[in-house]
Amino acid sequence: MNRMRRIVIICAVGIGSFALVFVGCMSTPIDPWAEPADDIRVELVEWARFAQNAHNYQSWRVVLDPERGDRMWLYTETERLLPETDPPARQVTISHGTFLAVMEARAAQLGFEATINLFPRGAYDLNTIGELPVAEIVVRESPGFASPVAVAAQVDAITQPTIKYRYRPADLETGILQAIEGWSSPEDGIEVRVVTDLTDVDWLNDLSRQAYELEMRNPATRDETYTSTRMTRRARRRTPYGLAYTANFRPALLRVVEISQALFPQNQEAWAQTGIDQFSESLADINTYIVITSDTNDRTTQVHTGRILQAVWMDVQSEGHVVLANSQALQEYPEMSELYARVHERLAPRGETVQMLLAIARPAEGRHLHSPRLPVEALIHEP
Ligand SMILES: Cc1cc2nc3c(=O)[nH]c(=O)nc-3n(C[C@H](O)[C@H](O)[C@H](O)COP(=O)(O)O)c2cc1C
Question: If you measure from the C-alpha of residue 124 to the centroid of ligand 1, how many angstroms do you get, rounded to a whole number?
Answer without folding.
Answer: 23
